[in-house]
Amino acid sequence: MRRDIDTSWLPIGSVVQLAQDDSRLIIIGYMQREETLRTAWDYVSLRYPGGWAGPDSIIAFNRSDIARTLYIGYLGPERDPLLECLSEAEPELERLKSERGGKIDQSS
Predict the structure, then answer these.
(1) Rounded to an integer, what distance in angstroms lies between the CA atom of residue 29 and that of residue 73?
(2) Which of 26, 67, 75, 105 has the lowest tally of Cβ within 10 angstroms?
(3) pLDDT in tens for each of the 108 residues of the chain?
(4) One Pfam family of this protein, by short name (predicted)?
């Protein structure tokens, strides 16, 4: 039996393409804060297929920046508690993003 897929938060390992960039990114984390800039992003990622090339290879972005989802990562039952935590923390994330505009951080 196939259960409904909740894609409000893409799973780790998903590959996306952003609206303003042709490169592909693989999602490695959620809800990252940047204290110096006092902002936060929905996702953190690495370039795909290149991956980790040091601390400057991390790219942070928001769900609204995604133009295409190229691959959806593993959707196991372990994900359900994580989705609950993400949903509970979402109002604070949105508040942080609105304070600075939540711009994409492509440090690399």
Answers:
(1) 12
(2) 67
(3) 344 555 589 999 999 999 988 889 999 999 887 777 678 899 999 999 999 999 899 999 999 999 999 999 998 888 888 888 888 888 888 888 787 655 555 554
(4) DUF4176
Sorted by sequence, the CB contacts under 8 Å of residue 92 that are 6+ apart come out as none
**pLDDT value for 58:** 94
Q: Which helix (H) or strand (E) holds 56?
A: none
For residues 100 and 84, give the distance between their C-alpha atoms in angstroms, rounded to a whole number. Answer: 26
* Residue bearing tokens 């600075």: 100
What whole-number distance in Å separates Cα of residue 30 and Cα of residue 9? 9
CB atoms within 10 A of CB 93: 19
Distance CA 91, CA 99 (A): 13
Name residue, tokens 């998903």: 14
DSSP 55: G
Where do we find the tokens 């936060």?
40
How far apart, in whole angstroms, are the C-alpha atoms of residue 98 and residue 42? 12
